[in-house]
Structure formats: structure tokens, C-alpha cells
């Protein structure tokens, strides 16, 4: 369950949030305002697309997402085999180049990555045999089957993983507000 704090989304969702209800539009607006302010004050921001030197709060879940301990353990069990798979693929340089050849021609970012890859291979064989994986896996729970679904495995775009602890802090902060609904209390 992700409630993005963007105009439009709030109107579409109204006052009911996946079984959680707010007493009034005023309560929703106050919590949303508190959450956005907290994000800006604590660096949970992204660059505003249409203004060069401006930021806004990052899209975050307004409410904590229920995720069972059992599904979390499933995700932990999957981490090592997925990481090993990515590592093995990363060692097959011909496969990488063949797989990315067409994309590199049409996508500047991928093209630059392939250029770096080829430069390192040509200049220093020992560097080409060195690897570091900074991976992020995103999961959701299929509510129909209660099974874990991997949404994506990021090998490049791993920037928001550091925000996870900040969002938990924001949720804890919101739970202490006088206008917080009972179901948002941290003991629940």
C-alpha cells in the first residue's frame, strides 16, 4: 500500500486509505502537510523537474506499508540467490556486450556505461576482474495469494534505498501528532 503525497492522488483516494480511515478532510490535510514538511526538513527531497535549483519532498508512502514477517523472511532468503545470479552474469563480458549492444546505440546513458566497461577492459585486466554489487530489490505482496512478488532488481538505480530509514522516522513522527488517528499509533 503506497499513498503518494501528490495532488490528484489524494483527491482520487479520498478519505479511505486501504482500510484505514481518517475522521475528516482536515485531518488528512494536516497529516499530509506535516509529512511533507517533515520530509523537507529532514532531506527527503528530490529536484523539481521544471525548476533548475528547486526541490520538493520525495514521493513517499503516507502510511506505513503492512508487510508480514513471513514475507520479509521470504525476501531475505531470495537475496543471496538473486545476488549470485547478478554476479555470475556480470562475469560474462561477451553476454553483457551482446545484450546491451542495441540499447547502447539508442540510449546515451547505457552507451556511456558500455564505453566505461570497454575502457576498463582495455586498460587494466585486473580492474576488469574486480566487482562490487550495490543492489536493491523491490518487492510487493500479492494480496490475492499472499505471495511475495519481486517488482525489480536495481543494479544502477539504488539511490532511494537510503531513504527507507528516514521514511520510517517520518511515520513514527506522524504517529505522535495530536491529530494522528488511532491506527497510526506506533504500538499498532
Question: Any overview of this molecule?
Answer:
This protein has about 190 residues and is α+β, with helices and mostly antiparallel strands. About 50% of the residues lie in helices and about 15% in strands. The chain has helices at about 10-15, 25-40, 70-90, 95-105, 110-125, 125-130, 165-175; strands at about 15, 20, 45, 55, 135-140, 145-155. The strands form 3 sheets. Strands 1-2 form a two-stranded antiparallel sheet. A two-stranded antiparallel sheet has the order 3-4. It has a two-stranded antiparallel sheet with strand order 5-6. Strand 5 and strand 6 (about 145-155) form a beta hairpin. Helix 2 (about 25-40) packs across helix 7 (about 165-175). The longest helix has 22 residues, at about 70-90. It is extended, with a radius of gyration of 21 Å. Mean pLDDT is about 80; it is low at about 1-20.
Short description:
With 188 residues, the protein is an alpha+beta fold. It has helices spanning 9-13, 25-41, 69-90, 93-106, 108-123, 125-128, 163-175; strands at 16-17, 20-21, 45-47, 55-57, 136-142, 147-154.
Describe how the helices and strands are arranged:
Elements: H1 9-13, E1 16-17, E2 20-21, H2 25-41, E3 45-47, E4 55-57, H3 69-90, H4 93-106, H5 108-123, H6 125-128, E5 136-142, E6 147-154, H7 163-175
Helix pairs in contact: 2-7, 4-5
Amino acid at each position: 500500500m503506497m499513498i503518494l503525497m501528490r495532488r490528484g492522488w489524494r483527491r482520487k483516494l479520498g478519505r479511505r486509505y486501504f482500510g484505514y480511515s481518517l475522521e475528516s478532510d482536515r485531518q488528512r490535510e494536516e497529516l499530509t502537510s506535516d509529512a511533507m514538511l517533515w520530509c523537507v526538513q529532514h532531506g527527503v527531497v528530490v529536484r523539481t523537474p521544471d525548476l533548475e535549483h528547486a526541490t520538493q519532498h520525495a514521493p513517499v508512502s503516507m502510511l506505513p506499508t503492512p508487510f508480514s514477517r513471513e514475507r520479509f523472511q521470504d525476501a531475505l532468503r531470495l537475496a543471496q540467490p538473486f545476488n549470485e545470479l547478478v554476479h555470475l552474469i556480470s562475469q560474462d563480458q561477451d553476454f553483457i556486450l551482446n545484450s546491451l549492444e542495441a540499447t547502447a546505440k539508442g540510449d546515451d546513458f547505457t552507451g556511456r556505461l558500455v564505453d566505461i566497461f570497454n575502457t576498463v577492459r582495455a586498460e587494466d585486466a585486473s580492474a576488469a576482474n574486480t566487482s562490487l554489487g550495490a543492489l536493491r530489490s523491490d518487492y510487493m505482496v500479492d494480496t490475492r495469494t499472499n505471495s511475495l512478488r519481486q517488482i525489480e532488481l536495481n543494479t544502477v538505480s539504488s539511490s532511494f534505498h537510503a531513504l527507507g530509514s528516514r521514511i520510517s522516522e517520518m511515520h513514527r513522527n506522524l504517529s505522535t501528532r495530536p491529530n494522528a488517528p488511532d491506527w497510526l499509533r506506533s504500538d499498532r
